[in-house]
Amino acid sequence: MARARVSKKKTVAIGKSVAVDKPLLRLSLSTGRLRSLTFVVAMSFCALTAGAVYAHLGQPDKVRETGLRSTSKTISTKASRGKILDRNGIVLASSLPASSIAVDPVMFAEADGKQVKALARLLEMSVSDLRRKIRKGSRRWAGLARNVEMETVHEIKKLGLPGIQIDPEFLRRYPEGPAAAHLVGVTSYEDKGLAGIELQTDELLTGQEGFRQVSLDRMGRRIGAISEVRAPIAGADVRLSIDSRLQYQAFTALQEAVEEYKAKAASAIVLDVDTGEILAMTNWPSFDPNDRRTFDQGHMNNKVLVDRFEPGSTMKPFPVALALELRKITPNTLIDTGKGRLKIGPDTITDTHANGVLTVEQAIEKSSNIAMAKLALDLEAEQMWSFYSAIGIGQPPKISYPGATAGSLRPYRKWRPVEQATMAYGYGLSVSLLQLARAYMIFARDGDLPDVTLFKHDAHMPGRQLISRRTARQVRKMLEMAAGPNGTARKSAIVGYRVAGKTGTSRKLREGKYVKEYASTFVGMVPASAPRIIVATFVDEPSGNKYYAGDVSAPVFAKVASHALRYMRIAPDDAVAEIEVPESEEKVVKR
């Protein structure tokens, strides 16, 4: 008989825990295995502990290095740029400590309105401009200003701004300001040369950067310096041939000339005849190299070296010198200039006056185009081209200055007769004021032509003998006549000194046609008996009633040269006579 199954029910009391038997939760380990596992864990712990103790006691430097790598980084430290000095050691450019200012936009958001306004005021910007710069930055960095002076930086630090980042850099300062701006040039925010001597000597002026370790916070921001890995090395100083006092006087004379003659621009250069040093080189208008807001690329070019122009009558002494050297003429050779007009094929060359028959000396004194044209046509084109090239026309100047022009001189095989004639009085070719001033050295140095330099040299600069001493002195005498009472440059006179020089008034070429806009030039040397300095002045587009070089550029020469003669203590070489003046005034001397 089958046995019936009986179901037994368990009664569970509410509120009492009951042990539930679940096989999956049961861990079944033998005693041996459990002991082995315990041993492995214990040995691992001991090994880790021993390693840590060894690392800290046996290799502390390595641990420190590893820790630093995770909480620091190595950054570069900028080196101070070298100074630019004038010949007497006066500073023309130097670097001062400064800082760049940036913020962490996330942290800076905590700054109150008063702090933000104060920061904007110190950075010389509006609050809206400040916030615009921050919006243009990244999430955690926004640059606000560069080259901030240390006085301002100290005031910014006092504000206690959250998220402010101040990094050291250098601010370039130019004590002579606009007077030497074109020559000295400027640097970028990164302290690299952009123009002028700053660019030309950038490798010398640039120092070697250093390196230092800085500590970081958990967000990767710098919070302090740890050590200096390598100290920065400052750049070398550069000493120029420029005399800052002569530079300033020349600059002032140009400014006055531009204002008086309502000119577009003006330039001047002063050369030491013996050493070939450039004692002054300046332009107007200029810019303030200490204020980047005044930078204008059109005003930053050094026109003495970079701009080229047709020199006009200042070229006339050169074909005369060549013809004298070739024995084709003497100073007293007669040239018939007729009634002031000369036909060459379909073209006509004119003089400002009908001079009739002139000697070669008188042709320079009166600045006759026709006399020069006739003289040039008696020369071979190749002879003229070779001589012009030898004095530097159409040749890159050996001065290694950024952008210095070579001027222009077309190949002689392409010259037409009328072109050869016009090149004798300065049309159909172009020069820079530097090239023109240097070329006149052959007359000041008795036929010897040296290179010129922008760096202090002091010693005599040897040159290449291009014409004989006799020829050079004959031409210098003609140039003295041109600067005399019967010449075109009477206003170049300097009391107590004999002046030799030549004017040049050339019309400017616009779209292939000569227009009534003028370039007025004068190149002179003094004392004429034994020249010590050459001064070349250029006034571009005088727009008043006066535009001839004798009225415009010659007086600028007189101002610049007379100051240089006094400053350099060069003895007079001309007799002076006293004249009577009212008792209330002192006696003066007059040439």
Structure, explained:
The longest helix has 28 residues, at 31-58. Helix content is 34%, strand content 22%. Strands 2, 3, 4, 5 and 8 form a five-stranded mixed beta sheet that branches. Strand 18 and strand 19 (533-540) form a beta hairpin. It has 591 residues and is of the alpha+beta class.
DSSP, total strands: 21
The proportion of strand residues reads 15-25%
The number of helices is: 21
From the helix content, strand content and strand pairing, which structural class follows?
alpha+beta
* pLDDT averaged residue by residue: 87
Q: Sketch the major β-sheet.
A: 5 strands, mixed
Alpha-carbon Rg, integer: 40 Å
Q: Shape from CA axes? A: elongated
Distance between the termini: 165 Å
Helix content: 25-40%
Query: Runs with pLDDT <50, length 5+?
Result: 1-18, 578-582, 584-591
